[in-house]
Amino acid sequence: MPDHESPVAADHGMRDWVIQIAYPAHNVGDQIPLLLATVYGECASSGTLKLLDLQLPESFVRAFQGPKFGLERIRELVGAPDRPLLVVMMKPALGLTPAESAEVFYQAALGGADIVKDDELLVSHPWSAFVDRVREHEQAARVAFEQTGHRTLYFVNITDRPDRLVANAHQAVEAGASGL
Q1: Across the chain, how many H-helices and E-strands are there?
Q2: Which residues pair with 179 in a beta bridge?
Q3: How far is CA 147 from the centre of its chain?
Q4: By CB neighbour count within 10 A (0-12 exposed, 13-18 middle, 19+ buried), where does 73 fall?
Q5: Please, are residues 151 and 110 in contact by the beta-carbon 8 Å criterion?
Q6: 153: which strand partners?
Q7: Is 155 helix (H, G, I), strand (E, B) or coil?
């Protein structure tokens, strides 16, 4: 890391450095929200820092089960072992009903999409409850698969208040969600 006394180019006015910061794992424990608040909170509050990478110690990673299927299994499910995955994102600003967004899903699946995912802002809205979206999208995935032989997965956004999150996950899985 350069010395803080290093000269700054007259026409630039700012220093650009890449630095590494280490936090003791015991400061965070096995809490992802605390990790994010610790690491990203500092970046966001400064306005001039950008988080480039995050390396987690094995002691932290072991505390979590991880996803049910890793990237290798997802590639296997969609038949894409060695090519980039094509991911389509549903945007909430479109204001589509579950049936309307299922048609968009279907067209994306026919076009070769491997995954259709909800945008992070597409939650359970009055015009599009996530459980209804799961049912409609999974039906569209089945129809497209029957026509093309290509499987398209649907990753639904279940974000909600903390007291409803686990119930949302169970409801999405019961409705047939490919991923959360």
Answers
A1: 7, 3
A2: 155
A3: 28
A4: exposed
A5: no
A6: 115
A7: strand
Who contacts 91 (Cβ-Cβ below 8 Å, separation ≥6)? 119, 121, 122
Q: Which of 145, 147, 170, 175 is nearest to 160 (CA)?
A: 170
How many Cβ atoms are within 10 Å of 133's Cβ, its own excluded?
28
Contacts of 75 (CB under 8 A, 6+ apart): 81, 85
Indicate the pLDDT class of residue 47, thresholds 50, 70 and 90. low
Write the burial class of residue 29 (CB in 10 Å: 0-12 exposed, 13-18 middle, 19+ buried): exposed
Tens of pLDDT along 111-152?
999 999 998 888 888 899 999 999 999 999 999 999 999 999
Q: What is the dihedral of CA 11, 13, 17, 23, to 10 degrees?
A: -170
- Number of neighbours of residue 128 by Cβ within 10 angstroms: 22
Tokens 């699946």 -> residue: 109
* Residue 128 φ then ψ, to 5°: -155, 80
